[in-house]
Design a protein that fits this description.
The chain has about 160 residues and is mainly alpha-helical. It has 6 helices and no strands. It is a peripheral membrane protein.
Length: about 160
């Protein structure tokens, strides 16, 4: 079964069907394959257009019927090329949207992991315990400041004694 037939008939891997659809990576890979195929077809059509134009010039006024047929084929190829351009634009847009969606999903997943980690870290923390600890720290800082002040003041032995 060809790729296009599988695409439109819902063919694909059993794993993709079992999960409810392909993964973003699988979908991106398929979109890239389709882009490559269409790009090759574009190149092919461009060379065919050039050949038909060359054939029309070659026949010129000597064989008008052959020149007109070549121009008609060229016109058909140009129409196909235009359709492929539109299809490629649509596929590129879809691929970019899928890449953005996948990125957003990964970002959200990682943010969820971070939130769970923060929750785990904060599990053992109690607001009352933290408040008590902060009061203890403040008290100890006050004591340290008093000690520092006491040490840094000059000893006024001479001032204390009166003759």
């Amino acid at each position: 079964m060809s790729r296009i037939s599988r695409f439109f008939k819902g063919g694909g891997s059993a794993a993709a069907k079992g999960r409810g659809g392909p993964s973003p990576q699988e979908a991106l890979a398929r979109l890239r394959e389709t882009e490559e195929m269409l790009s090759k077809k574009q190149e092919y059509l461009e060379t065919r257009i050039e050949r038909e134009l060359a054939a029309a010039r070659q026949h010129g006024t000597r064989n008008k019927r052959a020149a007109l047929q070549a121009l008609k084929r060229k016109k058909r190829y140009e129409k196909q090329l235009s359709q492929i351009d539109g299809t490629l634009s649509t596929i590129e847009f879809q691929r970019e949207a899928l890449e953005n969606s996948h990125t957003n999903t990964e970002v959200l997943k990682n943010m969820g992991y971070a939130a769970q980690a923060m929750k785990k870290v904060h599990e053992n923390m109690d607001l009352n315990k933290i408040d008590d600890l902060m009061q203890d720290i403040t008290e100890q800082q006050d004591v340290a400041q008093e000690i520092s002040d006491a040490i840094s003041n000059r000893a006024g032995f001479a001032d204390e004694f009166d003759e």
